[in-house]
Amino acid sequence: MNDDLYRIMIQGGVTSPGELKETIALLESLGLDTVSLGSRQDLLFSAPGEGVAEDNLTSGREIVRDRRYQNIVTSYVSSDIFDSTHWLKGSTYLYLIEQFDYLPRLKVNITDPLQRLVPGLNGNLNFLASPHEDYWYLNIRLPHWERGEYFPVLVYSWDITSLCRYVENLEEPPENAESLFEDLHSNLELNSRSMERPPEIPYKTFPYYEGVNRMGFDKYWLGLYWRNNLYDLPFLKELCGFCLDNSIGKICITPWKSLIIKGIYESARPALERMLGQRGINVRHSQLEMNWHLPVADPGALQLKNYLVGVFHERDISTYGLTFGISNDVGKRTHFAAIIIEKNPVPGTASGALFRPSYNILYSKNFDPNSCRYIPFAQDVGREVLPDLLIELSRMYFGQQDQEEPKARQPRPDAGEFNLRHVYQCPSCLTIYDPVSGDPDSGIAPGTPFEELPANHSCTVCSADGSIFQPLELSITEK
Residue 109 falls within a domain, yes or no? Predict the structure, then answer.
C-alpha cells in the first residue's frame, strides 16, 4: 500500500448508510471528491496539501496512517447472497465485530470457508467457520512464521476477541500453534471444542459480484465496481440517501475494491436503476477485468492490468473462475489471487529512463489461493510476453479441471444413453439455459441456440444480463 495514504477503518467491511454519509462529509470538508477502497475492506484517501493531523480527523471512525494497525476482515458481505455455512448468519458477524473494543495490530480475518469473495487465509489470525455452531477453526500465521498452522482446538465465537488481544500482548511471540495453545490454555479460560482434523476448504470458482441480482423472492442486491477505484463522493452520498430512504441498513465493502448493498426491495429497484442511469454508471463490467487485485493508487499497475485485459478481450480468452493479482512486493506471502504478477524492483544502478521493468509470474497450487503455496512459472520476463504466459496458465487451469472431472462424467450402469449437453449458466445465481429446452415462459422456443437469443436477454431468476452467461457441459442420460 502507498505509505502516503490515510485509512478509515470500516471494521468487518460493513457500515451503515448514516455512518458512511458522515465519513463522506468529512472527506468533502478536506477538499476531496473521491475515495478508494482497500483490500482489507477499508477506505483510503490522500490528504490534500501538506497533510492532515490525525487529531483533526474525527467522525466516530478510526482514521490512521500508522501501518502497525489493521482493519478486521469478515465475509459478512457474502452472507445471504453466496454459499454459506448453515449456522452462520449476518448478525453473527455483527456481534463479533462489536466485541473488538481495540484496533488490532495483527491482521484478523473472520470468514466462511464456503464462500470465495473474501479471502480466509491471508491474515495473521484467520478464523474459519466450522460445521459446529459458534465454533471456528483458527489458522495462525504470525508475521515471523514461514507458514500457517492450525490451532489444535476449535475456538468459541465469544472467545475470539480475548484470544486476539492476548496474542497481540505477548512479550515473546510463540514459535508454533502448539506452544501458543499451551500458553493460552494456562492463562485464559477458553470454551474450546476438540478438533478432529483440520478443515478441507472446498474449491469455489470466483463469483461475479456486480450488477443488480435477485436475493430471495422479493429483494435484490447491488454490486458496484469502478475500474479505477476512485469512487465519486457526491454519488456515494446520493447512494447513502437511497439506502436511508428505503430502509437499507448496511453497505458492504469487498476486498476486490467494490461495494455491495443487500436487501433492496422490488419496489425500490426502479429508483435505483434511474439513479445509476442518470449518472451513467456501468454495472455490467466483463469478468475479465473484475477478477484482478491491484495495489491502491498505483497507475502503473492499473495500466498493466488494462493492457493484459485488452489482450485477453482481443483474443477472446476466458478466465472464468481465475483470479489475478499484481504486486510490487517480491516474495510477499499473503496474496489471495490464483495467479500473481510480481514487478521486480529497479536495480540501484539502473537509469529510470532506460530501465525496462521485468516481472515474475507465480500461480497457487491447484490454482486455489487457499492452498497458501505459490509455484514459480516464469521469472524476469518482459511486459510484451506476459499475455502469452498468462494465457498458457489459464489453459493449464482449464486442463486441470478436465482431469478432475472424468469420474463425474461416467454413466451409471443401466442408466441409459449418456450424452454431454452444451448449456449456458448464469454466474450470479447458477441458473441454466438449455438450448434444447429453450425458455417457453419467456417466449424462447425449444431449440433456440444461445447465440440467437434477443440482445436484451437476461436471467429469468436474478435478472443478470445474458451476456455474462458462461458455457458449460452437463452430463445427460436419456432412457
Answer: yes
